[in-house]
Write a structure and sequence with these properties.
The complex is a heterodimer.
Chain A: E1 4-6, E2 11-14, E3 19-25, E4 32-38, E5 45-50, E6 54-58, E7 61-66, E8 71-76, E9 85-92, E10 98-100, E11 104-109
Parallel strand pairs in A: 2-11
Antiparallel strand pairs in A: 1-3, 3-8, 4-5, 4-9, 6-7, 7-8, 9-10, 9-11
Chain B: E1 5-7, E2 10-13, E3 19-24, E4 31-37, E5 43-50, E6 53-57, E7 65-68, E8 75-79, E9 88-95, E10 104-105, E11 109-113
Parallel strand pairs in B: 2-11
Antiparallel strand pairs in B: 1-3, 3-8, 4-5, 4-9, 5-6, 7-8, 9-10, 9-11
The chains are: A mainly beta, B mainly beta.
Amino acid sequence: QKEVEQNSGPLSVPEGAIASLNCTYSDRGSQSFFWYRQYSGKSPELIMSIYSNGDKEDGRFTAQLNKASQYVSLLIRDSQPSDSATYLCAVKGNNNDMRFGAGTRLTVKP
Amino acid sequence: EPEVTQTPSHQVTQMGQEVILRCVPISNHLYFYWYRQILGQKVEFLVSFYNNEISEKSEIFDDQFSVERPDGSNFTLKIRSTKLEDSAMYFCASTPLLSSDTIYFGEGSWLTVV
């Protein structure tokens, strides 16, 4: 069973703070790792993808991957109220099926 | 910007009826997916489809489900005899190349089984 685990939250941070979202996965053969954002009633939208160990930065977002620990995280700097959403960790293996975690609900308070 | 389109956006059906959900993937995409999300729960992988056949399917995708690409553009999910627990948002998704990892989602089809 390929599992993707996230802290379901909710996570609440003040505006301007750093939000830290974490994810672990069970399949050591996983190749690709993604963070999606999902607003209520909407489809997931891709924020970041990461494929190799280390950090990847894109604007206010930084994804971190540690394959040895089977751990991937997302940092959101200078959090804004518009960042309030559910953040989904997704992991893809060799066979192209992408599995999602349950999501972490983030609230950024003005 | 090209997008994955899904119809209907919302369907209400009686238990035991057959339902077909339709998707038009982005035109140059080769790999197609169906996911479902029961209200308040996680996005669950159902099936992936490549080169006119199922590539991978989950334990959820049992005999009541089927997929096909009847005309080279539409990609459909059929639920043969719907149950109350099939009520969910169904997302179609596609990716451009076999080696590409970015999956693009449609807006979803809400299915309510009564």
